Amino acid sequence: MKKLYSLASILVLAAVVLAACGGGGSGTGASDLLGAIKERGYILVSTDPNYEPQSFLNTAGSRPADTKCPSDALTTAEMQGFDVDVAIAIGSGLGVETCFATPDWDIITAGSWADKWDLSVGSMTITTARQQILDFSTPYYYTPAVIAVRADSGLSTLADLEGQALCVGSATTYDQWLNGDFEGLGLPESSIYAQPPANVTVVPLPTDQECAQAIAAGREDFVGYVTSDTVVNANLAAGFPIVKLGSAVYSEDLAAAVDKSSTLPTATLLEEVNKIINGMHSDGTLSELSNKWFGEDLTQAPN
Fold this sequence. Notes:
Layout: H1 7-20, H2 33-40, E1 42-46, E2 50-51, E3 55-57, E4 79-80, H3 82-94, E5 97-101, H4 105-109, E6 119-125, E7 134-136, E8 141-150, E9 165-169, H5 173-178, H6 182-185, E10 201-205, H7 208-216, E11 224-228, H8 229-237, E12 242-259, H9 267-282, H10 285-294
Parallel strand pairs: 1-5, 1-6, 9-10, 9-11
Antiparallel strand pairs: 2-3, 3-4, 6-12, 7-12, 8-11, 8-12
Helix pairs in contact: 3-9
């Protein structure tokens, strides 16, 4: 089981990084965001430091002396995971160093980033609501959303969850699905496999991984949580006292995103990111990374 940072330390770290990191076009004469990134020599990517195996802190890593990353950003040596490797590949494709900011998820999905970072590579689901404020890349992988419950709960079907309390990450598609907000969820009907249980009490935490960690710590005010199948599989592998309940409830198309309200135009950056992601699909790099971190290839669009 990999060492997990305490919630308090992660929140302090996130607050520091959010407050001080600067991406965007501040202090540059570039005509667009891609030019500003190449001019400074690094791209600042927002992602989650507590979302194993997609992205999490590397407790064995140390900050390199020659990094171009701002002092309040994390370097590639200090982060690891599937999303992290995808972000590193994007930076390499652009010819720059990749650095990481770790703001809260609801701040990322709200848009209006104020140029604090350049790109989100954080397993963000494409939804119609988010498309109003963010521009998305080609999806780089696809995951089913599932429900996990405490192993001692005695629950085994979706119907058993009626009237129960479930945890979700705040401002996630899991939150929207559980609250029956299908308009906000913005997924095609073919991607939604089940309706949420009736009369459920929704318990939001900053991230869905914290729901799993709360159960492992003995918290009992909810019986389970909704999250990506990849997260539940990692929780099971880490020995968390949970079981997966039933099959997938919906499927997610996950992509990188840029802020529509960026000070500098983002079209050329998104175009280059799409070229890099499409190339990684074509040459098998994404499949290789998926197998490395998830033990299966999740990079092929569901039929």
